[in-house]
Design a protein that fits this description.
single chain; alpha/beta; Rossmann fold; two-stranded antiparallel ribbon; 9 helices; 8 strands; about 45% helix; globular
Length: about 210
Amino acid sequence: MKKIVIFDMDGTLIDSKKDITISVNYVRRVNHGLPPLSEEFIVDAINKKERNLAFLFYGTKEYEERDRELFEKHYHNQCIEHASLYDGVQETLELLHANAVLMGVATNAPTKFAKRMLEHLKIADYFVKIVGADKAKPKPDPDMVLQILSACNYEPQSDKAWMVGDNPKDIEVAKRSGIEAIYATWGFQSEVAWPLRANHPKDIVKIVLQ
């Protein structure tokens, strides 16, 4: 029986909120002449179930191509300036890997940024597949999770798989993919009503290896 753990990235593996905030505010200033938003506002906006980020961040009805291009150009360098692993993540990945658990990353961030950040933090090699929203429909659509499960040759009748994340979308994508969900309580989202919880990354090891 194979065991597979799929991780969300931002707010689950990596604390990236400072760099996201800096790049959003850079676009606000350069393209729109707007004052900076707080880190708290930006993180809350990202995690809202229903939201229009183009309006919340830039005051536009939909993303303008110039905003998207400037953000991506700026974030390419910015995304590794302050990004850090949450306490216990490195050890958790090492323990899962040592116990032959297959792992992947499903993130609504673009794949190129995800790989850049995970490589910079020296954990990219733990993952069979890293899928961002440019390579699949964004969560909570099951597309990216199903891609990772396929890459792991997942057999639902005999194998066990979990989705780990800090957002309601991570819980929902697990349901839609037919796998279990583990809510990571340390992330960007303040509270999600879900019974299977990890209060520290090492709790994931206990759940998966029990």
